[in-house]
Specification:
about 210 residues, mainly alpha, globular
Length: about 210
């Protein structure tokens, strides 16, 4: 059986490859399972607090994950997707790796110094901007596979709810965003699980339902 496709399908090579493209074979493994796993675990942990499942006093546990796994590891996955000529994966993983690094910095060094009366506006618009980015990536994902579409669809809803909850200062809306984030993490974990399992077993064990 042929080698299973990457979790995030790469951009096709030009019909007339250059000399380098024609003679150099990439030896880089599919970075998508790593990027998806880093995103899923960090999103799941933060969403537990947003949903009110865990006490906010423990929220500091999110920061190491945001810095190293959701941030640095996912950023590296994005760089490897550039090497694999996968425009979608490169933009997605690099951007969300930067999101988690930015989240770490914002919580650790910025949020505490903002005026208490208006800090919610900064948080709300921070989330809204990422919601806009995720929404147009959802459109692009429609040419990948259903597993990836599920991640971006639920993540768009998550950002919309979290942004609305922050700007309106409505705890129940933020809590709903937390539960949407848990669903997002589940889909991202599934896509990662499928990618690494299919590549290791060298056959389709877990389907991702390609759309292109």
């Amino acid at each position: 059986m042929s080698e299973p496709a990457s979790t995030m399908a790469p951009t096709p090579l030009p019909t007339k490859p250059t000399l380098v493209e024609a003679t150099v074979v990439s030896t880089i493994a599919d970075p998508a399972p790593l990027g998806l796993a880093g995103f899923a675990m960090t999103t799941f942990m933060l969403s537990l607090f947003n949903a009110g499942v865990l006490s906010g006093t423990l929220a500091g546990v999110v920061l190491p994950l945001a810095l190293f796994y959701g941030g640095a590891a996912q950023l590296l996955a994005g760089m490897w997707e550039f090497r694999n000529k996968n425009t979608f994966g490169a933009l997605a993983f690099t951007s969300f790796g930067a999101f988690w690094l930015g989240f770490f910095y914002y919580i650790k060094y910025v949020a505490g110094g903002l005026p208490a009366a208006t800090a919610y506006q900064a948080t709300g618009y921070f989330l809204l901007m990422w919601g806009i980015f995720t929404a147009y990536m959802l459109i692009a994902s429609l040419k990948t596979n259903l597993a990836v579409v599920a991640v971006f669809f639920t993540l768009t809803i998550t950002f919309a709810l979290l942004a609305a909850g922050a700007l309106d200062q409505t705890a129940n809306v933020t809590k709903a965003g937390g539960y949407a984030g848990l669903v997002t993490a589940f889909f991202a974990w599934y896509a990662s699980f499928a990618g690494v399992t299919n590549a290791t077993w060298k056959k389709v064990v877990l389907p991702v339902w390609p759309l292109n």
